[in-house]
Amino acid sequence: MPDLSHEAALRKEGFQRIAGIDEAGRGPLAGPVSVAVAVLPESYKNSVLNDSKVLSENIRQKLYNEIIEDDRIVWALEMVDASEIDRINILQATWVGMRRAFLKLEPPAEIALIDGKPIQGFPAEHRALVKGDSLSLSIAAASVIAKVERDRLMREYAEMYPEYGFERHKGYGTKAHLEALQKYGPCPIHRRSFGPVAKELDLS
Fold it and tell me: pTM (2 decimals)?
């Protein structure tokens, strides 16, 4: 289970405001990549909070509500849409989202713990943690925010484009999604630079 040991180590180095950053939605064929950043209090405890991918939807929603209603927690969110992903690629879009989300924090953080690998051009000192969402509570909190917010948005898109079933697969390349993509072609939120979508564009 994640804890605050990485945050505690940074506090020993003199950092006080430590942000955790994570994303949701790098792999889907449609919709944005969602990036969240969270700053937890030093005394924060939560025995359930974990990497959002290992939590049920109900537990994620409950944790999300607890996080955003906790006045001690500062957080921010950034969505990078499909058109920007297509323009700069998904890795660069994820980095852009992380930079923008971090800069939205008020008050600002001094350093960030980021799930994954170091990112170029980050506006503050940062430390990368592979599988950080299962190691750091700050990153785990960010992962829950990013996932719940993205899923909510994809349900809204499902009402706009009901033929694709976004409320079920959230844009990932499931069999049902690929079949709908083949039948109806891409809609405005599809990532045209991703192989299965580009294939349908070539066939049209």
Answer: 0.97
